[in-house]
Write a structure and sequence with these properties.
Elements lengths: L4 H32 L17 H9 L20 E4 L2 E3 L2 H10 L7 E5 L5 H7 L4 E6 L2 H13 L5 E5 L12 E6 L8 H5 L1 E12 L3 E8 L5 E9 L13
Parallel strand pairs: 3-4, 3-6, 4-5, 6-7
Antiparallel strand pairs: 1-2, 7-8, 8-9
The structure holds S-adenosylmethionine (SAM).
The site of S-adenosylmethionine has 25 residues, from strand 2, helix 4 and strand 4.
């Protein structure tokens, strides 16, 4: 199904408004949790507790999500929901894409590693904000489809690799930020190693019950971990999933 540019713009604007409302709700919850704890959790998710950065919302609004979903799901592309993309995988919910992006507090000169390319949507949002995005996907047909979408959209600052992202991309390390879009039971050590001093890693961790964790690597190489919110991601696997 095809949709016109005007329809797409109206749907995109509505989706971004919903993401903003959800982010405001999240920020309120963060502030009240800080008050409840009398300052003990004062740094928790501090960046997004002030609301999402306008440049993150602008990036979300600029990326045509309907080009990243299967043709039969185009009518649902601008719902604030995860959607199936084949191979048992999903394109993440726009609110989660925005929140994870925001928590990385990106600078335009940053080099960012993403694990779990999936449809390529999250990488496309990151690519509007930073110098270079390196993205790794373990399911080859998904990586190849995402590469075609990046080429169609002229996104020349995304580099794609097929393989196990839990090993990171050592040849291109260190990274200013790392975003993991699938949940391991524990944070893979190579990802911490490949984070630059002062860098940030955002990652869902757990099994049936998962928490989004923000890791900050200090200049002295020590790390600070913060729990952000409960989330529900597909597992980070070590092998390619069976074909559809
Ligand atoms: C929730 S989806 C990612 C959504 C994606 N960021 C997007 O915008 O569409 C998680 C992806 O992680 C991939 N994945 C799972 N384990 C992986 C691994 N070890 N290395 C790389 N990718 C992995 C899955 O195949 C899936 O495509």
């Amino acid at each position: 199904m095809s949709i016109s540019d005007d329809e797409t713009k109206a749907l995109r604007d509505a989706m971004v408004r919903e993401v903003e409302l959800m982010a405001a709700e999240y920020a309120r919850a963060q502030r009240s949790s800080r008050e409840d704890l009398h300052g003990h959790a004062h740094k928790r998710g501090a960046r997004s507790a002030r609301g999402l950065a306008p440049r993150v919302l602008a990036a979300l609004s600029a990326v045509p999500r309907h080009l990243f979903v299967p043709p039969d799901l185009v009518p649902d592309a601008y719902l604030n929901r995860p959607l199936p993309i084949g191979y048992g995988q999903t394109i993440s919910q726009p609110f989660i894409v925005a929140l994870m992006t925001d928590l990385l507090d990106l600078a335009p000169s940053d080099r960012v590693l993403e694990i779990g390319t999936g449809s390529g949507y999250q990488a496309a949002v990151l690519a509007r904000l930073v110098d270079t995005v390196f993205t790794i996907e373990v399911v080859a047909p998904l990586a190849e489809r995402a590469q075609r979408t990046f080429a169609d959209l002229g996104l020349a600052n995304i580099r794609t690799r097929i393989g196990d992202g839990s090993l990171g991309w050592p040849e291109e390390a260190p990274f200013d930020a790392i975003l993991v879009a699938a949940a391991p039971a524990e944070i893979p050590a190579p990802l911490i190693q490949q984070l630059a001093p002062g860098g940030r890693l955002i990652i869902p961790v757990g099994g049936k019950s998962q928490q989004l964790i923000l890791v900050e690597k200090r200049r002295d190489q020590s790390t600070v971990l913060r729990e952000i919110i409960p989330v529900c991601f597909v597992p980070l696997t070590r092998e390619a999933s069976p074909p559809d």
